[in-house]
């Protein structure tokens, strides 16, 4: 499953040249992963309160291929490609709406599940694991 989240580039997302500032791509990808979890029925604030876990970026690798600009309509994808006991690996891409063949930014982001109190690794809740295993392409 390739989850897609639409986003418009605002002036605040850009540098003085009207190009999306590089760090904002990370914010866009974070939003897509959050919305992916939400689409499965999981709210991150509830996961903290009810299961004492949080998800945090452990590592990432990004390639910036072409600039996004002020007022572009973008699609940000989040595809879960690997599921381990305490982490998930997402493949993510950003492209302009109606131009999926021209990827602007792409990368892989590993998310760790950690105990909210101790910040130690924690097992991903079984409810999330079961829904994730039903996602096509997940290893």
What does this structure look like?
The chain has a single domain (3-133), classed as Hotdog Thioesterase (Thiol Ester Dehydrase, Chain A, Roll). The protein is built from three helices and five strands. The chain has helices spanning 22-39, 44-51, 126-133; strands at 3-8, 53-64, 73-83, 87-96, 103-115. β4 (87-96) and β5 form a beta hairpin. The longest helix is centred in the N-terminal third of the chain and has 18 residues, at 22-39. It is elongated and about 45 Å long.
CATH class: Alpha Beta
CATH topology: Thiol Ester Dehydrase, Chain A
Spans of at least 5 consecutive residues whose pLDDT stays below 50 are none
Share of helix, binned: 10-25%
SSE layout and pairing:
Layout: E1 3-8, H1 22-39, H2 44-51, E2 53-64, E3 73-83, E4 87-96, E5 103-115, H3 126-133
Antiparallel strand pairs: 1-3, 2-5, 3-4, 4-5
Outline of this structure?
The chain is an alpha+beta fold and 139 residues long. The chain is built from 3 helices and 5 strands.
Features of the shown structure:
alpha+beta, Thiol Ester Dehydrase, Chain A, five-stranded antiparallel beta sheet, 3 helices, 24% helix, 37% strand, elongated
